[in-house]
Amino acid sequence: MAMREIRTVGDPVLRTPCEDITDIDDRVRSLVEDLLETVDTEGRAGLAANQIGVGLRAFSWNIDDEIGYVLNPRIVELSEDEFQDGDEGCLSVPGLWFPTRRAWYARVEGIDLDGKEVVVEGEELMARALQHEVDHLDGKLYLDRLEPAVRKKAMKAVRELL
């Protein structure tokens, strides 16, 4: 296992949709170990594989003292009438937080290292993390979801980071 370096905004891997995992081999097992170790730090809620430079659909989470992972995650349900509008940040956009509208509840389905179906669901912070990490795997950053005026301010701040 290894604590991996986090790729930051501007790295093209963050804008490239990740490939489905078709074979659960030693490479994938090692990836999961690295995702779990790298997310296991205070202040880290989630980590997508492309944030550590791997273009495969996998992410880990660290919410309310629970650490886990899912392979090939897909959002299968979002609350349609309940939302949250809190500030959101990202390890790949260090030090910046902006108000981001997300569904209050989210449900993700995927598989584990044994190929068995996994369901991860939650409200509030867990829902935000699930949506945020699946966005990463689709090649999106939370900055893409910001309201236009906020996004303009955010992009100026991002340019100052670069």
Automatic annotation (TrEMBL):
Enzyme class: hydrolase
Listed EC numbers: 3.5.1.88
GO biological process: translation
A Pfam family per the record: Pep_deformylase
Textual note on the cofactor: Binds 1 Fe(2+) ion.
Family the UniProt entry places it in: Belongs to the polypeptide deformylase family.
HAMAP family linked: Pep_deformylase
Role noted for this protein: Removes the formyl group from the N-terminal Met of newly synthesized proteins. Requires at least a dipeptide for an efficient rate of reaction. N-terminal L-methionine is a prerequisite for activity but the enzyme has broad specificity at other positions.
Name the UniProt record assigns to this protein: Peptide deformylase
Species per Swiss-Prot/TrEMBL record: Georgenia muralis
